[in-house]
Give the backbone structure.
Amino acid sequence: MKRSFHLLLYCIFPCCVFAQKRLQIQHLSRHVYTYVTWHENDGAQYPATGMYLLTAKGAVIIDTPWDTTQIRPLSDSIQRRHHLPV
C-alpha cells in the first residue's frame, strides 16, 4: 500500500509542477488591459506581459504572446470578454 501511494505521488507531482500556466487578463484603465502568457525554457516558466486597447472598431493587441499557439486563446478571450473583433 505504501509503495503504491509513493508511486502515485511520483506520477502526479511532475504533472502539477510542469503544467502550463494559464492566460491572465487584468483591467488597467477604461480601455486598457494587460495580459500575461507563459513560456517554458529549460524546465522553468517565464512570464511575458502584453497589452491590448479597446477601440470603437475592435481590440488592438499592442504586444503579442510568446508564440503563435498563444495568440488564438488570447484573441478568443478578448472576443468573449468584450464582444469586439481583434
About this structure: The chain has two helices and four strands. Residues 5-18 have pLDDT under 50 and may be disordered. The longest strand covers residues 44-54.
